[in-house]
Amino acid sequence: MLPLCTLNIMASCTQVRVSVIGAGNVGSSLAQRLAEKDLADVVLLDVLSGRPQGLALDLMEARGVERHNREIIGTTDYADTANSSVVVITAGVPRKPGISRDDLLLTNAKIVRDTVKGAIAHSPNAVFIIVTNPLDVMTYLAWKTSGLPTHQIMGMAGVLDSARFQTFIAMELNISASDIHATVLGGHGDLMVPLPRYSTVSGIPITELMDQATCDRLIQRTRNGGAEIVELMQTGSAFFAPASSASLMVEAILHNQSRLLPVAAYLQGEYGLEDVFIGVPCRIGCQGIESILEMKLTDSERAALHRSAQSVRENVDRAMKLLENA
Ligand SMILES: NC(=O)c1ccc[n+]([C@@H]2O[C@H](COP(=O)([O-])OP(=O)(O)OC[C@H]3O[C@@H](n4cnc5c(N)ncnc54)[C@H](O)[C@@H]3O)[C@@H](O)[C@H]2O)c1
Ligand SMILES: O=C(O)C[C@H](O)C(=O)O
């Protein structure tokens, strides 16, 4: 028997639709990637009238040049997002130099709550991917707001953080990034957990290819990867690599690829953690999160993951209280 979601996709087989909520830097770059990779028609929604419509028209005008036939619709009306297979939430403010992702908590909690309510009303069967920061906390809030089963909702961060670690390893060793597999688990914050033991160059652990001090320097640069770009740009935060990372997750879902990707997933005892969304390796297919892989961790790796989860939990509690009083 075909999995349920395959039927969903086949039912609208000529027009698989992905909705991207928030037509800012990440949202518009993601819309471009999805259409130009010929993955789906895209609905781009924003609270600002005119912006999503203008961006959609601009992307439509590139179709002949880029040679695809995907439709891109810009809108402020959630009705236009109806029957999406995947909804990606990128609405929310980015951070400024000198502040942390957690400082965005109150503003973005309200935005995520409202946008998830708007989108789920029209696409209750969609897989939801949250991008808005602070990522793990927003994914938890989105899940609470939506009432979705936990396999149908995940946060994007691990793919991006691993891609950064991969990039820095590639630059250090002067080896193609394509030959490097990097693993970063944990929350998308200063306490994220890059795992050199599980990061390899064509199968060789990086710990055999560089000394400890070099490895530590690359880990620190990975942890600081978002802030490094915020400091350089002075306005806004990274969006090309975040859009690529979200696009990879959308592709894994739409094409039912069974990719093993680090995503923020709801844990119920895995890694000794409960009731928290945090980055762990998951098998991603048409149902969303199809399973969570428990990697063997050393005591110190496990302790680092628990510290990261504890920080996410504290911020979830803060967000819940702020929302109650807002
Ligand atoms: N998870 C990650 O790895 C990651 C990576 C990059 C960015 N981010 C986060 O993603 C978010 C977006 O980043 P960006 O660079 O695209 O910001 P941006 O300012 O360019 O775009 C945000 C968009 O959201 C829209 N918006 C705000 N409130 C809305 C609402 N209620 N409904 C619909 N749209 C609304 C804004 O009008 C704006 O167009 C930020 O919170 C940023 O920190 C996360
Ligand atoms: O750093 C940020 O604030 C944006 C994003 O989370 C990133 O890692 O690039």
- Might you state the CATH topology name of the largest domain? L-2-Hydroxyisocaproate Dehydrogenase, Chain A, domain 2
Q: What is the strand content?
A: 15-25%
Main structural class: alpha/beta
Largest sheet report: 6 strands, parallel
Instruction: State the name of the first-level CATH class of the largest domain.
Output: Alpha Beta
Whole-number tally of structural domains: 2
CATH homologous superfamily placement of the largest domain = Lactate dehydrogenase/glycoside hydrolase, family 4, C-terminal
Major sheet: order of its strands? 3-2-1-4-5-6
Computed over alpha carbons, the radius of gyration is 19 Å
| Average pLDDT rating | 95
CATH architecture of the largest domain: Alpha-Beta Complex
Describe this entry's structure for a reader.
By secondary structure, the chain is α/β, with parallel strands linked by helices. The protein has helices at residues 4-11, 25-36, 51-60, 63-66, 105-120, 135-146, 158-173, 212-223, 225-233, 240-254, 299-325; strands at residues 17-21, 41-45, 72-75, 86-89, 127-130, 153-155, 180-181, 184-185, 193-194, 200-201, 204-205, 259-268, 274-285, 288-292. It is built from eleven helices and 14 strands. The strands form four sheets. The protein has a six-stranded parallel sheet, with helices on both faces. The protein has a three-stranded antiparallel sheet with strand order 7-10-11, covered by helices on one side. Helix 5 (105-120) packs across helix 11 (299-325). The chain is globular. It starts with a helix and ends with a helix. Bound molecules: nicotinamide-adenine-dinucleotide (NAD) and (2S)-2-hydroxybutanedioic acid. Residues 94-95, 101, 133, 188, 225-227, 229-230, 237-238, 242 line the site of (2S)-2-hydroxybutanedioic acid.
